[in-house]
C-alpha cells in the first residue's frame, strides 16, 4: 500500500509507465480507510473520489463499480501470495514440508493484511455477481491446491488416512481466523506462524512417520516438533 496522505495529483502524469498502478494503490488505500470507517454500503464512489482529491469519473476510469474496486483490491493484495501457493502446491518437495510452508506463509500473509481481511470478511457479501463468481473460482482453485498436497501426503505415507477435503477445510478454516486473534497472542508474527504450523501438522502427520528436518525450521513427527538448525 502507498503511504498515507499521498495525493493522486502528486503522481507524475507523463514519463512514468507505472502511473496507473500507483494511482490504483492510492485509491485502494483511501477506499480501505472509508470501508473501515463507514462500511462498504455506506461508502459511495463519490466519497472515494473526494478522499482521493479527484472527480468521480476519474475513479470510474480505473474501476467499473465499487464492487469491482473491492475485487481488484483483493486481487492486488493476494496476487503474489496465490502465485507462490500455486508453485508450492506443484513443487517436488515432500508433502509435509509443503503443507507446513503453506500454513506459515498464509499465517504471515493474513497477519500482515489484517485490516483488509477484516473488511473483506465483513463485506464480501456485497460483491456483485460477476465479482462473486471470480472470487469463488479463485477460492476453489486454492482449495484444490491444499487438497492436492494432503492427497499426496497420504499416498507417500507422510499423512494419516484422513479425508483430504475434510482436512483441507479444517486447515483453511483455522487460517481464515488468524487475522482476528493474532494481535492478542502476545507474540510476533513469525512465532505465531510457527505455532500454527506445528499445531496443524501434529494433527495430520502419520503416527510413527520418520522425523523430517526442514532447513532452518523444526524436526517433526507425530509425537513432537522440536526446533532444529537444518543439520
From TrEMBL:
DNA-binding region per Swiss-Prot/TrEMBL record: 44-63
Database matches in Pfam families: TetR_C_24, TetR_N
InterPro entries for this protein: DNA-bd_HTH_TetR-type_CS, Homeodomain-like_sf, HTH-type_TetR-like_transc_reg, HTH_TetR, KstR2_TetR_C, Tet_transcr_reg_TetR-rel_C_sf
Keyword list, A-Z: DNA-binding, Transcription, Transcription regulation
Keyword Transcription: yes
Domain annotation HTH tetR-type: ranges: 21-81
Protein's UniProt name: AcrR family transcriptional regulator
Organism of origin: Azospirillum picis
Lineage, broadest ranks: Bacteria, Pseudomonadati, Pseudomonadota, Alphaproteobacteria, Rhodospirillales
